[in-house]
Amino acid sequence: MFKGTRFLLPLLAAAALGACEGTDSGSSRISVRLVDAPGDFKEVKVQITELYLQGGNESDSTSGRLTLATDTAKYFDLLALVGGAGADLVKDAVIPAGTYSQLRVRVGSAYVVTKDGKVYATPGAVLPAGMTATGTVNLTSGKSRASGYKVRFPGEGLTVDGDTRVVALDFDVARSFGHVAGKSGQVILNPQFTVTNVQLSGGISGLVTPAAGVAFPACGGAATDVTHFVATATGPTTLSAKAQADSRYKMAYVAPGTYTMGVAPVGYANGDSLKIAATPSVPSVTLASGQNAVVDYSVTAATCKVKPAG
Fold this sequence. Notes:
2 domains; 25 strands; disordered N terminus
């Protein structure tokens, strides 16, 4: 797994189109930033073809629909959007005041490159020069793909009334992309999103240190180290963050609430899996609005489960 450095990628700065049921005559502004939780790939590129707010009747995709952005060609580099980095999907779009129940996200083409260099792409995806797909990315949930994947705002929804809001849309690579299904030549993509009001969010970070005598084993056909450690926080939403080369991890845009800290196993394209046992400095943390917490980990064991031959 790889992470990039912080960068901003403006996609669209435009007024929203349409109207939201139940709004008053005022207007507000909204910005949406795309962030990511890590996954076990060398590259992950995805197109977000449409983003819209949903108000009124949630069961009707056209009720209170307010389009924020449309784009059919731009790929987002998801592995660069971690550790506090993000890309601007929408910047200061003008929207009617009111309460919105959810975002809906339409996903277009996608392609991934595994650690061993294999390329999987959705049918018809435009790939960089010199790159050829060796398998397919199968995007699940045809109905959701057509109408947009639902991403519900926490609590009673997002209420705006003449103010400016910034929200973070988390595209979780680790949970969205399934491993190669046997010998089918496919990677399964079932997009998993969460959304957080950045203005009310905090963060969780910490240092990962192996205990005396603990070493990371080879797994997935290559050496592993602390950068294969994935911390998790389970609460109002489930978050994850991968340790960097300096042994530190960081979860940004964490909504208020109580989170139980844990460690995620890591799966590899060849079927191997790395299981890490670690003790957090505290078993759980409770964050108030805008609060940050530090949770360090002591790694007590790391083992590789090798996929049986055949």
